[in-house]
Automatic annotation (TrEMBL):
This is Gfo/Idh/MocA family oxidoreductase. It comes from Gracilibacillus salinarum. SUPFAM superfamilies: Glyceraldehyde-3-phosphate dehydrogenase-like, C-terminal domain, NAD(P)-binding Rossmann-fold domains. It comes from the Bacteria. Residues 2-119 form the Gfo/Idh/MocA-like oxidoreductase N-terminal domain.
Amino acid sequence: MKIGTIGTGLIVDVFLSAINKIDGIECVAMYSRKEETARPLAEKHHVETIYTDIKQLFMDPTIDFVYVASPNSFHYEHAYQALENGKHVICEKPFTSTARETKRLKELAKTNERMLFEGITNIHLPNYQLIKEHVNKLGKLKLVQCNYSQYSSKYGALLNGDLPNVFNPEFSGGALADINIYNLHFVLNLFGAPLSVNYTANKHPNGIDTSGILLMEYPDFIAECAGAKDTKSMNFVLIQGENGYIHVENGANGCQNVILHVDDQSSQLNNQTTANTLYYELLVFKDIFDNKDFDRCHELLDYSHSVMEVYETARKTANIVFPADNC
């Protein structure tokens, strides 16, 4: 499984570190607009080829998969071009800017018989699978609370009048897209689509959300997802039922430690042995690829599409508009 990467940000460094832990996966090339930007990362992870022309990356016959970690607004374009050129694709979260874009990618991937995965880590984590196995012990659910807040290193620049990509509507940025998306996946992969969705956001004058609370109504319970890039918090997930609750420490993104509380008894749930959460999603993708399991790939694709539908609905309830909405 030979991979070429698009992007040189921190997430690519983490992704390459995860690759180094898995036999049978190798990064053979990376794309960056400037070679000097990619060179330190390429040397660190022993990647031999750097392309400054993205078409050369897509045409490289040694590459099986393209890993798309460009700014959010480029996810659709880069994934589409990779699929058109016969590559399989792993595309970072948020998958695309709109559900319509996800639908087009899904259709192209199926037509070209290529695999397409969303790089959302938490739903593939061993501890998340433990949560799925134990949530029925809580009895009738009433509340789900998620808070993942991380003061952004770019927020100061925004306050000083600059416009970093992550806070730029032109690049499909914002707190819901960048950080609350983990909470959204955590809830939707457990419980499916809600009856109603409403997102209330703190917004910068440019219209982007710097933090916000997403409220989702289910037939028997309510789920609240808070995400912030303008403040810090004690990150957590609480799933509350009539018989007890599950406490996920440090937030939905990593599921680092899970504590089950039922009938005044508590127990620790932990099957994770590495802190690099991308390691676990790559194990899943490699297994699907090795076994040519397109049914499982398409099942994940359909799920990602359903998440994008809820995400887009939530974004629009807060009147957050991206250029992609008009395409």
